[in-house]
Amino acid sequence: MKLAGYHKGKGDDFVLKMDYENLQDFETVYISKVFTKTKCDDKILLLPNVKYGGTGFFYANAPSLPYEVEHAVPDYLLYDGYVQAQLDKGIKPTTLKCFTDYSIGFLTRGCFRRCEFCVNKRYSRCVAHSPIAEFYDSSRKKIMLLDDNILAYPGWRRLMEELCAIGRPFTFKQGVDLRLINMDFIRLINQAKYDSELFFAFDDVADSPIIESKLSMFREHSDKPVKMYIFCGYGRNDIYDNDFWLADIESIFQRLAIIGKYQAMPYLMRHEKYLDSPFAGLYKAIATYCNYGGIFKVISFSQFCENELNNSKNKENPCSRWRYYADFVRQYPHFETRFFSMRNWIPASAAKFNKEAESP
């Protein structure tokens, strides 16, 4: 959208190309790729009129857009044809709301954490990037921020106050660093027209003390819905033996117990290395349990898998999720009693909420 906005501002014709046909007819073709596993014919990248970029091609070393492009006003009409084509296929409008409802941009860029698995690990700090006015379109109902770690920026309070003053619902789509929240943040979030859940991350079970402390503080003063990314399947020492996989699965359920205690919902984020695990099927079953339909709220993982068995039409050959679970429990029965049978969710009525949180 920034490329389109920049070129249209120069008077150029610009279209969203949905295929690789007739690329020679264009003066310049831009190809973007987000994920490394997305396929793209290398021969196309050698064409003299093709420019390509994005983390899918370069991962953590993706080159930045030129300044004048990066700070161009996005062309929010670029995807209109795509949206209409999807609607004509019967796709529900709500699934296309990112294209239709939101002003989208970065207020800040960067993060000081330098997590080794992250595409932002080349950064060492968070800096101001764009003023809201640069990408805010008053005709759009909501605002979506893609900031890497806004709370790492010293001026985050001012930015959030500006967001609240606009009066539009907004969301931090990439999440907020729970380890950095304080009472000022909770006060502003309570005042804001916040859109959807607050996304936090719980990447490492070693962070349990600070994560639980911050969740407790947040829940003491806010009933905003919370969803937490649970990162798994990644070995920080690059050793992927059986002990690693067992410890990793154990850490998932240790984290689920903590976030359920504070009425947060999980979203399991699996590093692609999990596919090399002898328990890859179990990871898939846990992801279904965590990520879909609020199942996590009402039953344990064991109950979820037993329901899968009961719903199988062929009991002699039940669904794969039950088989993965049953095979694992046969090998490691202690997981059943220590983790899989846990009811993680604590009813909200047990929490103390005080929406009138004050700054200390």
Structure, briefly:
The chain has 360 residues and is an alpha/beta fold.
Strand order of the largest sheet: 3-6-7
Instruction: Encode the helix/strand succession as letters.
Output: HEHEHHHHEEEEHEHEHEHEHHHHH
Q: What is the average of the pLDDT values?
A: 93
Alpha carbon gyration radius? 23 Å
Estimate the helix proportion, in percent.
25-40%
How much of the sequence lies in strands comes to 5-15%
| Mass-distribution shape | globular
Number of domains: 2
Number of strands: 10
In the predicted model, the low-confidence regions spanning at least 5 consecutive residues are 353-360
**Structural class by SSE content:** alpha/beta
Largest sheet properties: 3 strands, parallel
Could you characterize what this model shows?
There is one protein chain. The protein is of the alpha/beta class and 360 residues long. The protein folds into 2 domains: 1-100, no CATH class; 175-360, no CATH class. Helix content is 37%, strand content 12%. Helix 7 runs parallel beside helix 8 (183-191) and helix 11 (280-291) packs across helix 14 (320-331). The two termini are 42 Å apart. Residues 353-360 have low confidence and may be disordered.
Comma- or semicolon-separated keywords:
360 residues, alpha/beta, three-stranded parallel beta sheet, disordered C terminus
Structural topology:
Blueprint: H1 2-9, E1 29-32, H2 42-45, E2 50-53, H3 55-58, H4 67-70, H5 80-88, H6 97-100, E3 102-105, E4 108-109, E5 127-128, E6 142-145, H7 156-166, E7 170-172, H8 183-191, E8 198-202, H9 208-221, E9 226-232, H10 242-261, E10 264-270, H11 280-291, H12 295-298, H13 301-310, H14 320-331, H15 334-340
Parallel strand pairs: 1-2, 3-6, 6-7, 8-9, 9-10
Antiparallel strand pairs: 4-5
Helix pairs in contact: 7-8, 11-14
